[in-house]
Each structure stands twice: as structure tokens, then as C-alpha cells.
From TrEMBL, chain A:
<dbReference type="Pfam" id="PF02616">
    <property type="entry name" value="SMC_ScpA"/>
</dbReference>
<protein>
    <recommendedName>
        <fullName>Segregation and condensation protein A</fullName>
    </recommendedName>
</protein>
<dbReference type="InterPro" id="IPR003768">
    <property type="entry name" value="ScpA"/>
</dbReference>
From TrEMBL, chains B, C:
<protein>
    <submittedName>
        <fullName>Condensin subunit ScpB</fullName>
    </submittedName>
</protein>
<keyword id="KW-0159">Chromosome partition</keyword>
<feature type="region of interest" description="Disordered">
    <location>
        <begin position="188"/>
        <end position="207"/>
    </location>
</feature>
<dbReference type="Pfam" id="PF04079">
    <property type="entry name" value="SMC_ScpB"/>
</dbReference>
<keyword id="KW-0963">Cytoplasm</keyword>
<dbReference type="InterPro" id="IPR005234">
    <property type="entry name" value="ScpB_csome_segregation"/>
</dbReference>
<keyword id="KW-0131">Cell cycle</keyword>
<dbReference type="GO" id="GO:0051304">
    <property type="term" value="P:chromosome separation"/>
</dbReference>
<dbReference type="GO" id="GO:0051301">
    <property type="term" value="P:cell division"/>
</dbReference>
Length: 265, 207, 207
């Protein structure tokens, strides 16, 4: 495969060089952070700026590496094999005549690979430079036994005169002896309403408005009580079959009249 | 340290070592740490450092033959700062304070009988912390209960010349402050004002 | 500090506070701790202190807008403990940390596209546990991936005043090496679209 690639002597030498250092390389197999990492390391062996690496040479280096790993019966993770297949495809595409090229072109794919390697390379270097800085606990040290700063919270209580006397007023009000009284309100009892309504029903057989049964000059509170009691009395009389009730509609005047004797029987 | 104030290497090394050390160090420990130099050299460096730091916010001090840096004594207040936090007195505490003010000197049992609810020790602690009440001796009755009274700070905070300036019961009534309706309103507006748990907000040692 | 080398009161107070503090402090925190003085005054005092300590065994440094004292880097060999206090990071963790620092905020998928390999959950965990990276919200793209950024502790640990001090970040940015590959591809295609010589360039070192 190496011969088919038609790679120049420089490339071949580089591959050769990589092979010379193989022992260490293969022992590190578990140390690679994926196929891109391995590619980057191989690219570094070309000892040129990553912008000038030969992708074809790199592909050969990688494929050789994978082959040798296979020969040594080392177990390779699937993604290394996927990368190998892809690189083999890339290499053949790069060597194909131009007119048969697909989109994206193999040159674009190669450029993309190169850009990715540059970026990974940049980060690998950056990481190394970062780790080489003066680090706390290794190169520089903080105060071993700082006294520490403490902020003690102190509560300042606040109140005012009104809150004070209001509180006292409430205590006094709460604990003062209490006298309960029930107001004497004017009411018409159900019994007296029954009596009144029955008595008035005896006067006529005609329909009468229930309002007419109320005491004529009563104060409003008594009137309300009388209306309620008279209504209940009317219902009671209807239940006993002594009166009938009629109302033309909701909230219309409620009318009542005596039921003739025997009508219910 | 030379005349220009540039410290020498050993002085800097001792300075950094003491700065980073977790415990005060003896001259011997310093000498060993710095690669087995002569204790006399360390002593010299310590003397220079001591001079240098004498005017600064941090001093080099020796305690029991061990050396360390510590905050200059005149700046010790910077290590512990007080931060004031203003809080409004709770209703329970206000009631207790009012009762003490109107009835002083008064025992806890008396406060409770006036309030009609138990009073947690925390409530009285808060009033003590505020500086508004003080222990005013003991009542000479069985059990010799502690009695409480208000302080000059109390009068100060509430803008009173003396306790006689507190409005009397008649004035409170005139102001509507004895009106039971107020209490009913209060009850409707917030949680049960008689709830003995309310005292707990001051402290946990409620009876 | 005046000509005689006597530090002023505020300089001493800032010095003592930073010596005693367990954590680096911002100018604002210092101003608040020193009783609410002007931040500009604190900055002045810090400038004087920085000058004063520049030659000494202990330096005043600013890291992510927070200030602290630490030993001078040139004394590292004297101070290294028997047991290294710094955690050893795996190569994966080191690279992930660098990618986050130089690209922040950055999603896991973006980290993986640079490294060409999946990132184990443990790697990010280690960096989070060290306090060097933090979750910095979510990227508003489909899937709303979590994005990561570095912390002030990261700057602290690696002795960086700010992210601008990351080694070589300006050069990397100028070279476009912090841009995604897609962007770089577009840029490259725009400059020499379908350059027929490009292939030759790849193999140009062949005789």
C-alpha cells in the first residue's frame, strides 16, 4: 500500500521514522484520545507546521500504524478502524483524476481534516502552557493560616410609641371582663302570624295579597319579620289544606285565599 | 534589606515561608525548611522582616520561640466586623414590653396573667438584647421570682421623658385603643392574636 | 505609602484585610468590609500595596477581579511541600479544560467536535469538582445543550488576571484557530475557491 501511494522519499522516510519509534508508540495505544489524537501525533512526526503537513503521507502513516497494530493482534476501538476506512477512501479520492470527483471534493475533505488537526493541536499546546503556569498549591502558595474575616450580625430592634400603646390597649381589651347582651328586636312570632293570617282568611273567599296581612303601621324591622312569619304561616295553612297560594311570576305579589270546605277532600 | 528597601533573597524566602506556613515556625524549623542554612542567618532575616513589617498592617511576631504573621493590633477590629440589622419588634414582644412599662416592676408570672397567654423566655431575651428592659431584683414572695423594669434606653427610644408620659387607660379608651372591635378586626385581619405559639418566634425555649 | 516608606492607614487596612481573608476579595467587598469607603480609594491602596510587595517574597495579585496575596513564583522551589497539593489532571481533562477556557461558553458537542472523541462524564465532573468550570446556561439551539465556562477559581489557580491572559489566546484568535472548522472552511473556500493547485501543495514536498 505504501508503494501504491506513490509518496515521495521524504514521506517514506517519515513513515520509516515513525516505525522506528514504534515500540513506544504501540505501548501507548491506550493513551490516545481517539483517532484524531493519534493522527495529530503522527502529523507532529512530520516535524513541519501543521499547515504544511502532507495529508497523503499522514494517511499512509495512519494506515501503516493500524496495520501493524492489527498484525500485533492489538485490539483497536471501532472508531480507529472507521477513521482508517475513511482515510483510505480519502487517499484514493485524492489520487483519482479530477473530473470524477464528487462534492465535497477530496481536497475539501483533506482541508477540513487539516483544519481539525490544527485546532486540536492548538488546544493541546494551550493546555500544556496552561498547566505550566505558576499554579496555586504547586508554585505559589496562599497564606497558610489566615485569621479569617468575620462579620457578626447584630440586631437592632425597632418599635414606636403607637405600637406600644396599641399593644397595651389590645392586652387590656382582650383580658377585660366582658358583658354580653342580646338586643331586643321587634319580631312577629310564627304562632301570632298563623293566628293573624287564619283570622283574616275567615273574612273573605277572595284572593288577597299576603302583603295586606301585615300590621299596617309597623316599623321596617317589624315589617320584615312579619312578612317572613306570614309567609311561613301561609305555607303552613296551605299544607293543612286550609288555603291556596298563587303567584304570577318570580317576585310578583304572593296571593292567598281560603280554600272552600270540602274542596280538598 | 538594603537601603533602597529591596529585600534580600533569604529575607524573601523567610517571608514567603512564614506566610504560607500553617503553623508558627521556630528558627530551627525555618532553617531546616530553607535547605539547612544557619539559624543565625534566619535570625538576621527575621530581624529585618520584623523591622520592615513594624509599620505595616501585618506584623511579624514571636510567641514562645515560634514566628508568624498576624494582623497589626490596631487593626484587629477589621477581623471582626459588626453588621447591624434593624428588625421590628414582634407583636408578642411589644405586648410584653408595654405590660412591663405600665406595671413595672413586674414578674413573668404577672406579665402572663395580664396577657392571658404564656410568655416565652425568648421574648424577654429580645427585650433585654434591645436594652429596653432590665432585671430589677426579685419579688419577696415564695419562689422569689425575678422582676423586670424598663431602662432609660426604653424611654429614649420611645421618646418619653418618663414613664408618667405613657397615656393612661382613659386616654387609651378615648383613642379607641381599648375598643374590643379593634381586637375583632385584628383577629380577622391576621392570625389569632391569642395564639400562644406567637411567642415562639422569639425563641425556641417556649414552655 | 509616603517617601519614607510608611504606609497610610487605608493601605494598612487593606493589607491586613487581605492577609486575614480566607478567600480572594473584590474591590467592592474590600470597600464594604472597611466600612463603606469609596472603591476608588481601595483601588489606590491596592496599587500602592502592589508596588510595595512587587519586590518581596509575597505578592499582591488580581485574579478575575479578586485580589489576594500569594508567595512569589520564583520561590516555588523553596516552598513545595513533600506532598503535592495540586491534583493531577488526565490528558483528557487538561484538554477539555483548555478548550472550555479558550472557547467559553462551549457545549459538550463543541468540545467533542474539536477533540474528535466523546467526552466521558467523569472528565467534566472532575473539572467541576475542582471548581474550575461551571454550567453557564444553555445554548439557544435545538436541544438547548448545556454550555460550560470557567470560574474565578480557575483564573485564581492558574494565575490569570482575566481570560485575556490565557497563554497565546490573541495569536490563536488572530490565526482563526478559535473559530469552528465550518467557518474556517468557508473562509478558506472564499479565498481560493477550488484552487486546482491545492492538491499539489499537499504533496509539494515530494520530489
Amino acid at each position: 500500500m505504501l508503494a501504491d501511494a506513490g509518496a515521495g522519499s521524504t514521506d517514506a522516510a517519515l513513515v520509516q521514522g515513525a516505525q522506528a519509534g514504534d515500540e513506544a508508540l504501540y505501548l501507548e495505544l491506550d493513551g490516545w484520545e481517539g483517532p484524531l489524537d493519534l493522527l495529530l501525533d503522527l502529523a507532529r512526526r512530520q516535524k513541519v507546521d501543521l499547515r504544511q503537513i502532507s495529508i497523503l503521507a499522514l494517511v499512509d502513516q495512519y494506515l501503516t500504524y493500524i496495520e501493524r497494530a492489527g498484525a500485533m493482534r492489538l485490539e483497536l476501538a471501532a472508531d480507529y478502524l472507521v477513521m482508517a476506512a475513511w482515510l483510505a477512501y480519502l487517499k484514493s479520492a485524492l489520487l483519482l483524476p479530477k473530473e470524477e470527483q464528487e462534492d465535497p471534493s477530496p481536497e475539501e475533505l483533506a482541508l477540513r481534516l487539516q483544519l481539525r488537526l490544527q485546532r486540536l493541536g492548538a488546544m493541546r499546546e494551550a493546555a500544556a502552557r496552561l498547566m505550566g503556569r505558576d499554579r496555586i498549591g504547586r508554585d505559589v502558595f496562599l497564606r497558610g493560616a489566615p485569621e479569617g474575616l468575620r462579620t457578626d450580625r447584630k440586631t437592632v430592634w425597632r418599635s414606636d410609641m403607637f405600637a406600644l400603646i396599641q399593644a397595651y390597649g389590645q392586652v387590656k381589651a382582650r383580658t377585660a371582663p366582658r358583658i354580653y347582651h342580646v338586643a331586643n328586636r321587634p319580631v312577629m312570632t310564627l304562632d301570632s302570624a298563623l293566628e293573624r293570617v287564619s283570622a283574616m282568611l275567615g273574612v273573605t273567599l277572595e284572593w288577597m295579597e299576603i302583603r295586606d296581612f301585615l300590621p299596617p303601621h309597623a316599623e321596617p324591622a317589624l315589617r320584615r319579620s312579619a312578612l317572613a312569619s306570614s309567609f311561613v304561616a301561609a305555607l303552613e295553612l296551605a299544607r293543612r289544606g286550609r288555603a291556596e297560594l298563587a303567584q304570577d311570576g318570580a317576585f310578583a305579589p304572593l296571593r292567598i285565599r281560603r280554600l272552600k270546605e270540602g274542596a280538598t277532600a | 534589606m538594603n537601603a533602597q528597601g529591596e529585600p534580600g533573597m533569604l529575607e524573601r524566602a523567610v517571608e514567603a515561608t512564614l506566610f504560607a506556613a500553617e503553623e508558627p515556625m521556630t528558627v530551627e524549623a525555618l532553617a531546616a525548611h530553607l535547605g539547612g542554612i544557619e539559624p543565625s542567618e534566619v535570625r538576621e532575616a527575621l530581624a529585618l522582616l520584623g523591622q520592615h513589617y513594624a509599620a505595616r498592617g501585618v506584623h511579624l511576631v514571636e510567641r514562645g520561640k515560634r514566628w508568624h504573621f498576624e494582623t497589626a493590633p490596631d487593626l484587629a477590629h477589621l477581623l471582626r466586623r459588626e453588621k447591624e440589622q434593624v428588625r421590628r419588634l414582634s407583636r408578642a414582644a411589644t405586648e410584653v414590653l408595654a405590660i412591663i412599662a405600665y406595671h413595672e416592676p413586674v414578674s413573668r408570672a404577672e406579665i402572663e396573667s395580664i396577657r392571658g397567654v404564656q410568655t416565652s423566655a425568648g421574648t424577654l431575651d429580645v427585650l433585654m438584647e434591645a436594652g429596653w428592659i432590665r432585671l430589677a431584683g426579685r419579688r419577696e414572695v415564695p419562689g422569689r421570682p425575678v422582676i423586670y423594669a424598663t431602662t432609660p434606653e426604653f424611654l429614649d427610644h420611645f421618646g418619653l421623658e418618663s414613664r408618667r408620659d405613657l397615656p393612661g387607660i382613659d386616654e387609651l379608651r378615648a383613642a379607641g385603643l381599648l375598643d374590643p372591635v379593634d381586637e375583632a378586626m385584628e383577629a380577622a385581619m391576621r392570625f389569632d392574636p391569642d395564639d400562644p405559639d406567637e411567642d415562639d418566634e422569639e425563641g425556641s425555649d417556649a414552655p
